[in-house]
Design the sequence.
């Protein structure tokens, strides 16, 4: 089935640094979502993108829906220790709107050194 | 607000045993989903229910059955557990099965099959 390629797989950064991660697909998507998962909990929605080219911010987080509809990125500015967790991209392929089925990337594990 | 509630939080089964994972949401959502999460593989859709009274297979349905008991509840059953079903299981819901309807996740059930 369709796979999303999410990179990097893991990051270990210093507090205060900026972070960037991205997701690519082999087919066109009509929705891109970014989730964060803390240990022992379920994923929590950070940002939702619904239009090609859309750039959306949520505090220190910024995400963009790629113009080609085949990619998305998430940036975190001025990282803090509580940013630690696993970040997942997820998307819906064109034509899957009626089913709502999301496809997930493999996740980016972020660790922040104080 | 409880959101999506899953029970149990942890379970250990022996190969061949059966069990049912319970999920309930209090957000009046129409659509519900079951995912499994394995290291390095993101979340994979097992089954989903676009609306009360309907269920459909996802990416990895083999070895599982589901029941949409009512609008609030969506259960996942393992009839004869296998070690390959050791995983973390997440239930999710969305307002409807459409592209502009993000998923909200429960906190997961951690299942070990020995």
Sequence:
């Amino acid at each position: 089935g369709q796979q999303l390629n999410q990179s990097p797989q893991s990051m270990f950064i210093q507090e205060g640094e900026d972070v960037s991660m991205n997701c690519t697909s082999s087919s066109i998507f009509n929705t891109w979502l970014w989730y964060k998962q803390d240990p022992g909990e379920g994923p929590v929605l950070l940002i939702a993108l619904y239009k090609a080219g859309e750039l959306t911010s949520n505090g220190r987080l910024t995400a963009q829906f790629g113009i080609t509809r085949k990619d998305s990125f998430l940036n975190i500015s001025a990282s803090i220790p509580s940013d630690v967790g696993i970040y997942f991209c997820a998307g819906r392929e064109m034509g899957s709107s009626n089913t709502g089925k999301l496809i997930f990337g493999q996740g980016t594990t972020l660790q922040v050194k104080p | 607000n409880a959101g999506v509630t899953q029970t149990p939080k942890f379970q250990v089964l022996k190969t061949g045993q059966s069990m049912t994972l319970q999920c309930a949401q209090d957000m009046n959502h129409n659509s519900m989903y079951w995912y499994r999460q394995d290291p390095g593989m993101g979340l994979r859709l097992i089954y989903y229910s676009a609306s009360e009274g309907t269920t459909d297979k996802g990416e990895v349905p083999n070895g599982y059955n589901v029941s949409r008991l009512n609008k609030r509840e969506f259960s996942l059953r393992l009839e004869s557990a296998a070690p390959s079903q050791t995983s973390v299981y997440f239930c999710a819901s969305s307002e409807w099965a459409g592209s502009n309807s993000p998923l909200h996740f429960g906190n997961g059930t951690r299942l070990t099959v020995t």
